[in-house]
Amino acid sequence: MLRTVAVSTTLAVVAVACGDTGAQPDAGDDASADASGCGAEGADQPGVAVTTSGAFRGVAAEAGGLAYLGVPYAAPPTGERRFQPPAPAACAAGISDAEALGARCPQLDPDTGAYLGDEDCLTLNVWVPDTATADRPVMVWIHGGGNAIGGSAEPYYRGDRLAAAGDVVVVTINYRLGQLGYLAHPAIGAGNAGLLDQVAALAWVRDNAAAFGGDPGNVTIFGESAGGRNVCTLLATPAAAGLFHRAIIQSGACKFLDTLAQAEDQGAAVIAALGCDDDADVAACARAASAEAVTRAAAAPVGALLAATYGPNVDGDVLPEQAEAAIRAGRHHAVPLIVGANADETSGVAPLTMTQQAYEAAIHATYGAALGDAVLAEYAALSPPRAAYVKVTTDARFLCPSREITRSAALGQDAPVRRYLFSYDASPLGAVHGLDVPYVFGTFDAVETAGGAPYEPTATDLALSAQVQRYWTRFARTGDPASGGDPADPAWPAWDDADPAMDLSATPAVEAGAGAEHCDFWRPIYEAL
């Protein structure tokens, strides 16, 4: 059986003249600038894609087709650009071999505390299937990791199998993390650089999708954990208008975003830890520190699903309001949506054994005395204590929020919204957080068993992965995951008050209220936040 998958604990750039790394244009500008021959050396050469960042030669992908790895979509966010919105990438001279994955953005290993990555990290990867199809749907993956760890180079995000399965172009992106991506301080800025990186990557995809046989008018964003949270946030980010046309939110909730004041409180702690709080030029002091020093300064805990994480804040500009409030009110980018969660999200981080006393103490510590008592009463029928704890925390943090996002979106837009529950328990601990990822990408070879050996997928694993890939890529193509598909694939109805959800299990089927038997209990609590 599978071990817990270590996935997470989850400005419109116009085409520029070769060598131009000037100021960022206003978000939403059309891609109308003349690239002035950028990448012209690669024109009409087999396997070479000519982009606004230069000409790039792809490498053969394992599942067929070509991979373009480590392609810059923005200038390195170093020196004076640290903490600032992303600037356009310079045009690379000649033809570059896009054969190596880019460095992950600076972060701390959650297990060892080691510093990893490089500040020059704003790159993406493109996988193109081995077909002659033009105008393919484009799927852009936003990785998870609490906006503090992870990156597009993780082996379970390799996109060639998903691209081949659905004849789509798959793009995976890096974006700034932790303090370097989300530090807010009056002397530095509002702290949404990591979110603006994602917008810049989407603008790059819009400007360059055709170079890879992709359709810039049919882009789906999808992500898991913090990546799903970021997808949800992008729905309410004005700068992202027109840059995507469908969205899939996997195990991510976007209601709990910090206010600017909260983000600035955390930013003040970072500046103090750097010794810059009394400096005459706080911004210059913070820019002069090493990337490792900034990453380590007053770092929030990562690696635990219930711990504090980084992310966008509601600054009134880049993000005018809480994303889910915008979605419910219809003040968002109304696109077809798929939203869902796994059945046992927190099982991978819950204690392996738990007494009744420890369970009750954990609930009271998390929710307080009065609400804790109500939670214990709501889940009194569940046993043993560990199973009850996993169900409570999965419902509160993932499953019920995903249902509420679905409900909010269905109220705020005419475009269809669909819900799923991934309940297939291939892991000894159940359908844990991140377990869905190798089924989406077909990357079982990147997963280890509990004993450390490579996982050998069963026939059921492969069949479910193929079905998930059919649903995800058909959704990217048409907006309906069951449209024009295999007659054996169950139809997937749009969400309504009956709460239909696709239960992705050994035998996928639509189930009313899948996994949501306690969500009406959480709704008033969730809505009050």
Descriptive report:
The chain is α/β, with parallel strands linked by helices and 529 residues long. The protein has one domain (40-528): Rossmann fold. The protein is 29% helix and 16% strand. The chain has 14 helices and 18 strands. It has helices at 160-166, 178-182, 193-208, 226-234, 260-273, 282-288, 291-296, 323-329, 356-367, 369-378, 385-412, 437-441, 459-478, 519-528, and strands at residues 48-51, 54-57, 59-60, 66-72, 95-97, 107-108, 115-116, 123-128, 136-142, 169-173, 214-224, 246-250, 258-259, 313-314, 337-342, 417-422, 500-504, 509-512. Strands 3-4-8-10-9-11-12-15-16-17-18 form an eleven-stranded mixed β-sheet, sandwiched between helices. Strands 1-2-5 form a three-stranded mixed β-sheet, with no helix packed on it. Helix 9 (356-367) packs across helix 10 (369-378) and helix 11 (385-412) crosses helix 14. The longest helix has 28 residues, at 385-412. The chain is globular. The protein starts with 47 loop residues before the first strand and ends with a helix. The relative contact order is 0.12. Residues 3-35 have low confidence and may be disordered.
